[in-house]
Write a structure and sequence with these properties.
6 helices; homododecamer; alpha/beta
Chain lengths: ~140, ~140, ~140, ~140, ~140, ~140, ~140, ~140, ~140, ~140, ~140, ~140
């Protein structure tokens, strides 16, 4: 059965806890549960990893080669700073969809640059936690 | 009955015709038909305008005050050049979702700047014509 | 009888309606009426055009050659983007005064650049709608 | 019979009238007449449009698909600002030659950037109105 | 009786003397006299200081707290270089109108940046010495 | 009893060992001991973590929510590169004081940018290891 | 008896008066009194100068050669603009500590550059008026 | 009999040999022969120099004073790097037409800057080797 | 017996697997084996670490103090982003040689900056996996 | 008898005292004495002012109108920051020669910009205190 | 027998003479002799040219077409300034290895840009004169 | 007998001929004659080279090692473009004085950068051909 890998980068474990007026009150666990149901309804598996360790994230991406057909990733702040993350995603050759909950494009300085975006299959910003659902929907379409 | 306004900027009348390897073979008419069905299924009206005239687009946005609750807009190239379009959208105060079919974030120079994005409710790029569906879905949620 | 041309660019038809806390509650019609009275009191004609169409604005400026002795223009957002507007004003050789209602110099990014300003007879920003009156007063002085 | 499309952008209707010391005393009508004769002598049709409306220009380019084999275009100031114009020309896939009457490369700021140039078949600047003749000559060679 | 403070920065004592083809033949004394009459006609006091000493200007602004309701200031070259002047004006919290006699926005380099402008109530450039009159007129309106 | 969290980023375990002519001969252990005494004398607890792992640092900051009232942090090189660290500190909402032993503001390139500084309660650079004492003193004052 | 020179630049005479929500309600006189007590307790003299005149500040620094062993300076806005001040401090060769009451590093534009910082013994920003105490404490340590 | 000087800069001796898919298969000798015929047909002399030595090119330009009425020059890469070449052309005061075979304006970095262009009578890029013919035609018109 | 430390950063465990057309088919294990033989032939020990964890890499470098006389490092993407890595290498004071398998200097954006290079003993890019051999050869020469 | 005005800006009173290894051991008084002798030998008067007050310098320049035929000025750090000084020199219309004792062109940042240079009759940097003699010699030649 | 071309640009004839503390005491002749031996040992010919004339270097590269299979080049300062050199190397289509004796990547300004690097087969900097040996070794491998 | 080397770069052979209103009517030969007399009067030899060949200039500088004690050089346009020239001058270690006849600092773009200046003993610009005399005078002082 085909699989999708859901990845969340640094600080996203605080979803629903930190700055709810900005990121919403929904916890990461609730989001993942909802996406699991959606994936299963579409006849696919979904695996999830949230980590504050770049090393763990890189290892997980490496391990995804061959086993997953699409990645949905919210890289958090690493989306602006980690070229190693870009390299890993490009190296394993799995199409990925990038999600940002808030409108990061509205922020200046380094936050305005999205390092993962140029090689992404799609990028969605500012749709709140619903962005995950849309990215998953797009990923599921890849199997058709 | 609440309404949604769908706007398409310059050259998007060529969708499905120009550079299909880049933009897909789906015509704009087909996309609009599909979105109309979706909106009606959700109990809403959808009005559409594609125009190559900035004046016509500005006038349409002005006329939307009071009558629409959300805008879905693919500004095409004007997304990189038209501050007047930004002003009009901000002036009428209707939340809008910005759609780009291809991954414009992967292009350098002036294309890398999205003038409408900072004030948008959400931005979706590179998901192909499905980006319209996701933006519409998000817009429909505004009535809940 | 000598004449003055009053021009207003995109979105200015919303004056008094959009964002009154920012632009004031005075409508464009009220402003134009007041300026007409002032011009007539000084023994001059005043013609006015507000348009969201760059083409219409360019044509109006072209048509002003020979018939007007001064232009008062609030270019709105085109003041930051339209080099064609600059070309038209320079081509007809009529001195023009540029008005911005709010303090656009306080805004960053592309808004900080005023393309029409270098060739203008004068520029007035942030004086509210009274800026039109001052610009008209200066324009009337050209006949002395 | 194969055809060539001649396009002139904003303010070029003033040729021969505005700033003759800069742009020469030849009117646009005179130039077009001369080019018509040249095209007919080479056994081709030539159609011409000058417009101050970007919308009209985009529509004309769209309509040229299939009917024209080359475009000669003087975009005027839009050559520095209109990405929509670039998109239209690239979309219809007709080779185009860009003409600027004066040496725009000698001007600084935004005028130094030619947005249409990278995808043009050729660019000619500063040869006066003769630049049209050279561009037409090059366009005619495309049929050989 | 309410009061207005008129401030002139470095080199403006040379008005009417230095480069008259650029700044006009009117002396600073003549300007001040005219403004005094205008202020008195409106039932207000006007105090004036021209100084080439930044220290004297800062001290005068400090001393204006409580005693003046508006400031009209031509900062001369300090408008491009003195952040201390910005701090002083912001600190005393009196609304100020900035005047430049010539069109400084037409000059490149450091002259293109107006440090006082972002916090000003209004900015007027290039209207010649009449700019003072307009600024004063705007300042007088503050008492209404 | 209220608590303060002392955090040291990458390479700071080498304090007193690496480049003593630049960073001084005092070891990190000695510094921490001294600060512990100071904190206890003020009736507070002090916890310390030095780590070369960004993941460990993020986790420690997350865990500090609710348990600490102030953070003193020397982020080392991460102060110039880690937006994830900024996000974590802002997310937990604990006021933090940033310390750099040497004068990093005197260095060019990327070292001149302090990513944590804009949201910090205070920043102290170049005071040697005494900077920790000052930051702790300021942190202790928060309880008054 | 060894001495320390305390210097305050433009507008700092307004401390405790201007924008108290930003700079605190403590007056400069109160701060100086407190620092005098501290210095005397450590067996040192403290001299103070606040001035809005750059000339007076330069002269005071020149006069400090030989007579003072450390300088504590809050340069105010001159910290971003006065290279003459940098030259004077470097010329007399007395170690100096730079203090900014608020977090100037959080401000963009020219305020982000601290001209005195590269040659300073230490820089402290955002600690409120307590920053003076820390800088003085560091200066006093120089005699040990 | 009036004369025209044809100049070709570095690496242009490889025309027709190097990268024919980019520069065409026509050799420089063939181009020069064709231009000679054209010049003679117009009753003028044409002299040609291709050199990889900047010194030789400068000397040839110096020697052209008084003897030539126009220059057609393809400066190759020196068009982006040699200010000495600009100086020489300006010094001898002979109008020159600059030719680039390929569309150098489409290349980024230093290639985007054309140092000779600002002072050129005309610039033609991307017309292939036919650009020489157009430039020659323009040069011949100078005698009329 | 003197020793050399071979370090490989993130994603380099994929060598020979990811993008072989770009990085070659040789695995990292094969490279390390070959270098081990070379080092032993020269009478030295070689230790190797590949890691995707910056923390592990920093710790390994710290531990190298005193035990190794040279480092050969391929930092991968961290070579463009990790100032902490630079700090660690500089802190332990062991000369290091930087290797990049492909020509990273040919890539734009952030990849064009090599943070480790300024303090490196040597840098070799684009020689394929043979770059390790050359760097090792240079490192071995340090013992002579 | 014609006169020359010698001006020295901030900190130059420390010449011969501050950093003699950089600026030489010659005092300003000694330099002025030498220049006085030279000027008198040429039959001219020389007046001198060194000041740390920009106001005093501006006033002195204003007062020079009509009375002096040339100015020799070492603006010190104001040469990089004071546009008011530029304005004053241009306003009085007296040719001036700018002197810098050390090679300020070799310094980066703001010191690399010489604000007075564009309008100067000549600029001499890095010749030590002899630069004054050369500038005086050039100024004396103006009377011939 | 296959051949390798060794090229050295301007000032490299001074190797071993100029700044030996920077470039080493080995003369260019000694380096060439050593490389000749190495090439012959590998059964190849090596030809060498050092020149201070860009023209001579371009001609030599042109002449290498067909006769050489690899180039080893130290372009000296031309590596930062000569686009003509880049053109020549790309035109002849021979793979080339770029050598810089010192770590030019550690230098700022124009020296930080390596114009030849993007199209090079490999680049080696900072390995001293041994860099030539490594580049030659890599070039010899091309025949395998 | 000690010697001075006078060097003139590209196009300076045209002095007195090209643009006399800009560079004066004095020929290079006349300048050199005058400087020869001056040098001999001071008991020194003077040798002169003007060349349009960078190679010849580099060779002449190389040959100057040991035989000359100072260089006076007007590099012309190479002063803005030739790093090889900088390298040669630094390599031979002879102090050099740079002369520019006109005020090149008043020109923008690449002309504003003086590549030779940072390592020069002195730089003199805008003093006309007298700048050579001053530079020679300074050079002669080196023997004292």
């Amino acid at each position: 059965m085909a699989s999708i890998l859901l990845l969340n980068g640094p600080n996203l474990n605080l979803l629903g806890i930190r700055e709810p007026e900005l990121y919403g009150a929904e916890t990461l666990a609730a989001i993942v549960d909802r996406l699991l149901v959606r994936a299963q309804a579409a006849g696919r598996e979904l695996e999830h990893l949230q980590t504050n360790s770049e090393a763990e994230l890189l290892d997980r991406i490496h391990g995804a080669r061959g086993g997953f057909e699409a990645i949905v990733i919210n890289p958090g702040a690493w989306g602006h700073t980690s070229l190693a993350l870009v390299d890993a995603l490009v190296a394993v050759g799995i199409p990925y969809f990038e999600v940002h909950i808030t409108n990061v494009l509205a922020r200046g300085g380094r936050r305005a640059e999205l390092l993962l975006a140029p090689a992404a299959a799609g990028v969605i910003v500012g749709f709140g936690t619903r962005g995950y659902d849309f990215a998953l929907a797009a990923a599921l379409k890849l199997f058709d």
